[in-house]
Amino acid sequence: MTDTLTSSRPPFDPELEAALSALAGMIPPTITREMIAPMREAPMLSVTEEILLEAGIEARDVTIPGHEGDEIVVTVLQSIGRTGTGPGIYHTHGGGMIIGDRWTGAAALFDWIVQYNAVAVSVEYRLAPEFPDPYPVEDCYAGLVWTAENAASLGIDPDRLLIVGGSAGGGLAAGVALLARDRSGPALCGQLLMYPMIDDRDETVSTVQIDGVGVWDRGSNVTGWDALLGDRRGTDAVSIYAAPARARDLSGLPPAFIDCGSAEVFRDEDVAYASTIWACGGEAELHVWPGGFHAFEGFAPQAALSRAMIAARNDWVRRILGS
């Protein structure tokens, strides 16, 4: 850990700080292990039938083999009445490895599904602590394999399969991309890593700065990694697929888009991940949004910074998937 650590942090964007104040009491900065069960019973950022209909999206569930052949569920999303072939979007949801479901954050895919005639597959991977590493990342990889193997029947162009995830889902997306590389698995045309959770070691400046403040602070992060890894957290026994920040070789990966806020716990590990991709000769587009807390665009979608963040993602997706 560097000796330049400081307890001060970058200021929140004023518009986002006001939104954060409004969220006080609804979202605790620190999530403890005891909060996992009640938070699972009251999911946030989920999707209703009305939201689907308004977006022009239809959905169906499919049971597929997960890790070790156990059954898991994926949801297939596409425009109502879709025909033809288009890109595929494989989605791994967020929730710190401990909460959330396949609908968490799925609404962020809707515009891309409609605009590009895409089919999205969102995976219900099993959560820690009941299912520790490697269950989450291996379930996610199994879902990607299923999507690629069924591309023809799904109407997916196998050369345009994009993996997308936010927060823990961003970390899982990065881990799945590494697994696909190392196992010669499905080809990916890109990896969209939204403020990814990728480092279990709790050693960065940003993790010290974001402690007891914002959304998903240092304590929450330790809760999530402890649930996933148990006594292995912070040791050499952690694989690069569970914590992709540990990977030294990030060559041979699909183009990456990485974003985060300057005032969130994942800032430094996300910046370092992009830097390592560049050092390995890879392609990464990195955006660090000044004054942004974790997942701010989901909690304050009308804020100017949120609109800019979403526009940057949309522009990258347009370049990756084409029109």
UniProtKB/TrEMBL annotation:
Any coiled-coil regions, as ranges: none
- Domain Alpha/beta hydrolase fold-3 intervals: 90-296
Q: Does the keyword Hydrolase apply?
A: yes
Per UniProt, the keywords (alphabetical) are: Hydrolase
Q: Which GO terms describe its molecular function?
A: hydrolase activity
| Pfam annotation, one family | Abhydrolase_3
Query: Do you know which InterPro entries this protein is assigned to?
Result: AB_hydrolase_3 (IPR013094), AB_hydrolase_fold (IPR029058), GDXG_lipolytic_enzyme (IPR050300)
Domain of life here?
Bacteria
Kindly provide the name given to this protein in its UniProt entry. Acetyl esterase/lipase
